[in-house]
Write a structure and sequence with these properties.
With 200 residues, this protein is mainly beta. The protein contains 1 helix and 11 strands.
Length: 200
């Protein structure tokens, strides 16, 4: 049986606050993210030298460390990510749980990354240039306490009860990567909307 590697353009990121505060709602920004980077866990090895043993090294494993997760999305009137960071800066710590779900070509969830106790540490606004007609993209960096990976479907642990369906914060008619469309937003204003996730 030929095993086909998964592609990177079909995915969904969902951030849910344990206790929504300051007018924030779940999922944050309706789970509309176009890029996700930083799903990484490393362990620093410690080398121990043993007297009289010159032909080998003894390695001990140190504590696990996790990278910062970077999320990018087309900027809209939804500024919940900025509000989340501002609340954190004022001392109102509101950790979120995160799930990053990868989908195959048939829009079936196949891999789910689970992140616990996520906190925002940086927000970056778009680079503005009047000569270019580019989409304005904002960027969020967050830290997390733990990372686990689950294989979904018949060969894995099966779909989890929440966060893996197309309705879990994924916009209808949106394809993975950057998807740009013009028209009226939910608030009734015209303009460009950009999101990432799964086509439905």
């Amino acid at each position: 049986m030929t095993v086909v590697p998964f592609t990177t353009f079909r995915f969904e990121v969902v951030l849910d606050l344990a206790n929504p505060v300051g007018g924030l709602t779940n999922p944050l920004c309706d789970a509309a993210f176009a890029e996700c980077d930083g799903l990484e866990m490393t362990m620093e090895p410690k080398t121990v030298e043993s007297g009289g043993v010159n032909n080998r090294q003894i390695h001990l494993i140190g504590p696990a460390k996790f990278a910062q997760l970077t999320l990018k999305r087309g900027m809209t009137s939804n500024v919940q990510l900025w509000q989340w960071l501002a609340l954190t800066a004022r001392g109102t710590v509101a950790p979120a749980s995160g799930t990053v779900t990868m989908w195959d070509a048939d829009a079936t969830p196949v891999i789910e990354f689970t992140l616990e106790k996520c906190l925002p540490v940086r927000m970056r606004g778009p680079s503005l240039n009047a000569r270019e007609g580019l989409v304005a993209v904002e960027e969020l960096a967050l830290v997390y306490e733990s990372l686990s990976v689950t294989a979904l479907g018949a060969d894995g642990a099966g779909p989890s009860p929440a966060g893996t369906g197309a309705a879990a914060g994924t916009s209808a008619g949106v394809s993975g990567g950057l998807s740009v469309s013009g028209g009226l937003s939910a608030g009734g204003s015209a303009g460009l909307s950009v999101s990432g996730g799964i086509s439905s």
